[in-house]
């Protein structure tokens, strides 16, 4: 069964450093999401892509976060500079609108970021 | 803005008992309601979902009910087992836009 891939699985960095996360969605899925999940809370959307276009980045802290999906397939999320409060799990998900109208999201394993 | 309230935040049940988790949504345009199970350190995985034109759906020991008028939906797990212990998230969605609940930590006591 196809799965969303993410790397790295774990990242430890010092504040003010730059970090980057990579996501490869399920083949054929046009919609890709990046979420941040703080321990004990639900996922919060950071950015949503439809193919290579951003359709929602209203919750993305644009002064330090950036995301791209240049060819409409895999995606990179970057933080520069990292801050202590960025420590969290970063989840990628992808979906494809089905003929039945549902757009089930499938999640990757996540990248756990620790900022020291 | 749109939000999804989920209750309870923690739930402990004895093995074999039933567990019920409830969610209330605010966006009346929501038309798809998935439930995810997330075990510690693992990815959220879809366990069941329901569309707005259906009132109830069942899959073995789990079921979901939807009340569109009241804008709430519930997850029911019967005959709970230790492997059901996890965090469960509900979501209310309308074409590509997901709003997640805050999660329920379910503990099944052996």
Entry summary:
With 116 residues, chain A is mainly β. Chain A is built from no helices and 11 strands.
Describe this structure in words.
The complex is a heterodimer of chains A (116) and B (110). By secondary structure, chain A is mainly β. Chain A has no helices and eleven strands. In chain A, the strands form two sheets. In chain A, strands 2, 4, 5, 6, 9, 10 and 11 form a seven-stranded mixed sheet that branches. Chain A has a four-stranded antiparallel sheet with strand order 1-3-8-7, with no helix packed on it. The termini of chain B are far apart. Classes of the chains: A mainly beta (116), B mainly beta (110).
Layout: helices, strands, pairs:
The complex is a heterodimer of chains A (116) and B (110).
Chain A: E1 5-7, E2 10-13, E3 19-24, E4 31-37, E5 44-50, E6 53-56, E7 65-68, E8 75-79, E9 88-95, E10 106-107, E11 111-115
Parallel strand pairs in A: 2-11
Antiparallel strand pairs in A: 1-3, 3-8, 4-5, 4-9, 5-6, 7-8, 9-10, 9-11
Chain B: E1 4-7, E2 10-14, E3 19-25, E4 32-38, E5 45-51, E6 56-59, E7 62-67, E8 72-77, E9 86-94, E10 97-100, E11 104-109
Parallel strand pairs in B: 2-11
Antiparallel strand pairs in B: 1-3, 3-8, 4-5, 4-9, 6-7, 7-8, 9-10, 9-11
